[in-house]
Design the sequence.
């Protein structure tokens, strides 16, 4: 009989500093939000709507994530522009996470909801926008579940 030895798998657990990872993600997200707020101010000023540029709100900073979007800006006409922002230091097509709340707000506020995708942030920040419900503009794959005993 031929005996095949089981491969000797060697695995060394690498500790993950989740607090550091979260802090880096928050820092990147905040920097991206400030980048977009400046972009929106410049856009409105160029459009001759300086009064609206001064009314832009950084909701994620002031109220947290409960609104389902990060920045309240405006169209030149004065109508609300709800901006959810996803910042990545990598390329435009790097996957990103969305919350259930962000998804729901994108569905209920379809006409006002915009996803701003900021990418290559560490090198040369670029952005593109998607308008409308995330379920219509993105491929969504469930990745997390909440489990309760009982």
Sequence:
């Amino acid at each position: 009989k031929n005996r095949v030895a089981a491969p000797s798998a060697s695995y060394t657990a690498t500790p993950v500093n989740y607090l550091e990872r979260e802090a880096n993600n928050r820092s990147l997200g905040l920097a991206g939000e400030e980048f977009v707020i400046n972009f929106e101010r410049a856009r409105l000023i160029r459009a001759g709507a300086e009064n609206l540029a001064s009314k832009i709100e950084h909701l994620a900073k002031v109220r947290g994530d409960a609104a389902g979007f990060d920045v309240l800006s405006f169209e030149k006409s004065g109508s609300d522009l709800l901006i959810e922002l996803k910042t990545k230091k990598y390329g435009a097509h790097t996957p990103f996470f969305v919350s259930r709340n962000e998804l729901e707000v994108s569905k209920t506020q379809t006409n006002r909801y915009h996803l701003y995708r900021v990418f290559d942030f560490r090198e040369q920040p670029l952005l593109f926008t998607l308008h409308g419900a995330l379920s219509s503009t993105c491929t969504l794959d469930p990745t997390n579940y909440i489990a309760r005993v009982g």
Notes: The first strand starts at residue 71 and ends at 74. The chain has a mean pLDDT of 87. The longest helix spans residues 18-46.
